[in-house]
Amino acid sequence: MDDEPRRAFFVQKHAARRLHFDFRLELGGALASWAVPRGPSLDPDDKRLAVKVDDHALEYGPFEGTIAGGYGAGAVMLWDRGWWRPEGGAAAEASLAVGRLRFELFGERMRGGWMLLRMRTKDKGDNWLLHKLDDAEARVPDDLTIRYPTSVASGRTMAEIAAAGAPPT
Ligand code: MN
After folding, report:
1. Domain count along the chain
2. What is the spatial distance between Cα 150 and Cα 134, in angstroms, rounded to a whole number?
3. Lower CB density within 10 Å: C or N end of the chain?
């Protein structure tokens, strides 16, 4: 719908204690966020674990650099960015609440239909699956995270971001 406000999405590749991709959707004035250890796959059958984490401030979305210390210390690359919309104009908040969000991405790397589905587990944690819907943007085999090793913002590799952020010696 043309009168629908465009909502941002961001993906940050984050070399914390364990490498992961932070997938973030603008929603309700913040960034709803999931940590995806293996990153997104373009293969609709390749469902990737996405652990729901705390919302982040909108301003953090385009961040790239290094986190100096504490939780999450390490290099952060802006791996993808763009716009998203819930499929069929559905209320995204309600879809998230029931654990089933279908949406479309208009990113530089992630495009087409995607889905986030909350797993029913007895474990602690808020585990979801992120997967590609089968459309013209789907691709098998997938090589999205391998094909794009650099930042969409700066063109840098993780090593270059880490080196730039290191304190002077
Ligand atoms: Mn992270």
Report:
1. 1
2. 26
3. C
- Residue 89 makes CB contacts below 8 A (sequence gap 6+) with 1, 4
34 alpha carbon to ligand 1 midpoint, in Å? Answer: 9
Cα distances from 89 to residues 24, 74, 108, 132, 158, in angstroms, run 19, 37, 22, 19, 36
Q: What is the whole-number distance in angstroms between the Cα of residue 15 and the centre of ligand 1? A: 8
Range of the domain at 84: 7-162
Which of 124, 135, 107 minimizes the C-alpha distance to 52? 124
In a domain? residue 86:
yes
Look at residue 75 and tell me if it is in a domain.
Answer: yes
Query: From ligand 1's centre to the CA of 113, what distance in Å?
Result: 24
Residues present in the chain in total = 169
Calculate how far, in angstroms, residue 52's C-alpha sits from the geometric centre of ligand 1.
11
At CA 111, angle to CA 110 and CA 114, rounded to 5?
Answer: 90
Q: Cα of 151 to ligand 1 centre, how many Å?
A: 15
In one-letter notation, the amino acid at residue 113 is G
pTM above 0.85?
A: yes
Bond preceding residue 5 cis, omega within 30 of 0: no
Q: Is residue 16 part of a domain?
A: yes
